[in-house]
Amino acid sequence: MSIADAALLVIDVQKGFDSEVWGRRNNPDCEANIARLVRAWQQRGRPVIYVHHDSVKPGSPLAKGTLGNEYKDVLSADADLHISKVVHSAFYGTPDLKGWLDDHRIPAVAITGITTDHCCETTARMAGDLGLDTYFILDATHTFDRQHPDGPTITADDVAAATAASLHTEFATVLSTDDTLTLLDG
């Protein structure tokens, strides 16, 4: 199998992540890279799946019915499947992602979206454990600075690097957008 067999998962690319409540983010090219990947998948007739977080936490910038709950403008093209979720993993959403992949005989997923270390990483770990060939396109994700329980701030770049190191070869193959596009054409 190869990345050309994968469905593209676009996770939680929602306007609410532009809110200041999240703090400083990394990777300002994330959304542009996602747009490039969506175009590439659609041009090849491969499935694109949008995953949407409908937060049930009071006051969340991602709460259903708010402007923050809407997809960012970069996702103007329609998807083959829309999944709604209230937890981190896209595999716990509606409709059932694994069932849809199985029904369509899709053996692999390529993961993009927000945030690198929460919903994207959780989905990647589950995909790997479910036996899917999993590709994690690191520069088509972004995250935010995190506060360590002992006090120091861990930069978003360091959080993303730790996610990549943790996932690579154990749960997923970590790639860049450029490498992914090259592999699609190969």
Taking Cα atoms only, what radius of gyration do you get, to the nearest Å?
Answer: 15 Å
Which strand order spans the largest sheet, edge to edge or round the barrel? 3-2-1-4-5-8
What count of structural domains? 1
Largest sheet: 6 strands, parallel
SS-based class: alpha/beta
The string of secondary-structure elements, in order, is: EHEEHEHEEEHEH
Helix run count: 5
Query: Which CATH C-level class is it?
Result: Alpha Beta
Strands, total number: 8
Distance between the termini: 13 Å
The shape is globular
Low-pLDDT runs: none
Mean pLDDT: 96
Name the beta content range: 15-25%
CATH architecture: 3-Layer(aba) Sandwich
CATH fold assignment:
Rossmann fold
Query: Portion of residues in helices?
Result: 25-40%
CATH level 4 superfamily: Isochorismatase-like
What does this structure look like?
- This protein has 5 helices and 8 strands.
- The chain is α/β, with parallel strands linked by helices.
- The protein has a single domain (3-185), classed as Isochorismatase-like (Rossmann fold).
- The strands form 2 sheets. Strands 3-2-1-4-5-8 form a 6-stranded parallel sheet, sandwiched between helices. Strands 6-7 form a two-stranded antiparallel ribbon.
- Helix 3 (116-129) packs parallel to helix 4.
- The radius of gyration is 15 Å and the shape is globular.
Lay out the secondary structure.
Elements: E1 6-11, H1 30-43, E2 48-53, E3 81-85, H2 97-103, E4 108-114, H3 116-129, E5 133-142, E6 146-147, E7 153-154, H4 156-167, E8 173-175, H5 177-185
List keywords for this structure.
single chain, 186 residues, alpha/beta, Rossmann fold, 6-stranded parallel beta sheet, two-stranded antiparallel sheet, 5 helices
